[in-house]
Specification:
This protein has 192 residues and is an alpha/beta fold. The protein has 4 helices and 9 strands, in the order H-E-H-E-H-E-E-E-H-E-E-E-E. Strand 5, helix 4 and strand 6 form a beta-alpha-beta unit. Helix 2 crosses helix 3. The chain is globular and about 50 Å long. The structure holds inosinic acid and magnesium ion. Magnesium ion (MG) binds next to loops.
Length: 192
């Protein structure tokens, strides 16, 4: 990272989070992603953000999609698989369902991170079963070595090292979502 770190980045680096993807790098990549997606999706597609982790990414990406000339509908699907720790429980549950009808729509599923793939495999199957015309996947981060089910994203923000990361919507035990960058929690840091 050559550019000067923001105050938040300096503060976090001094305490418990080591910056992995800076605010500026994220902004540049999300801007590119909007352009990439606009080449492959219907202008009037439906974006479904898988919550909670993707809410920050979704807010930035839909404005990038707008700049690329797209006009998406937006809905939210809350799934849980992790509990409050850093290990997946393996079981995916719907905590809050979408409210829009996806039948006949080109759907873009958004998530913060693709790890085992269970969350996105569950979401993709659900939306396909409800009659979507197509279902594409866009994830902000991808940990390809951690896959437990065969699924890949059509669009990836960054490939992520096999470490537990926080910030830009990603949490550790419900904390750190507000960080404007992505970083790795230092050993011994906790959510208190
Ligand atoms: P998967 O079902 O294993 O692919 O995991 C997807 C979900 O697990 C994501 O939507 C995140 O909420 C969570 N997750 C996986 N890895 C991380 C991480 O490094 N930091 C924070 N959350 C993570
Ligand atoms: Mg999540």
């Amino acid at each position: 990272m050559n550019e000067p770190a923001s105050t938040a980045e300096r503060t976090a680096s001094r305490s418990e989070v080591d910056v992995l993807f800076s605010t500026e790098a994220i902004a540049d990549r999300v801007d590119e992603l909007g352009g990439e997606i606009s080449q492959t999706m219907d202008r009037d597609c439906m974006v479904i953000a898988v919550l909670k982790g993707s809410f920050v990414f979704c807010a930035d990406l839909i404005r990038s999609l707008h700049r690329a000339g797209m006009h998406p509908r937006i809905d939210f699907l809350t799934l849980s698989s992790y509990g409050t720790g850093t290990e997946s429980s393996g079981e995916v549950k719907i905590t809050r369902d979408i409210t829009d009808d996806v039948a006949g729509m080109d759907v873009l599923l958004l998530d913060d991170i693709l790890e085992s793939g269970r969350t996105m495999a569950f979401a993709k199957e659900l939306i396909q079963k409800r009659g979507a015309k197509s279902v594409s996947i866009c994830v902000f981060l991808d940990k390809p070595n951690k896959r437990k089910v065969a699924i890949d994203a059509d669009h990836v923000g960054f490939t992520c090292p096999d470490q537990f990361v926080v910030g830009y919507g990603l949490d550790y035990a419900h904390y750190y979502r507000e960080l404007p960058f992505v970083g790795v929690l230092r050993q011994g840091a906790n959510a208190d």
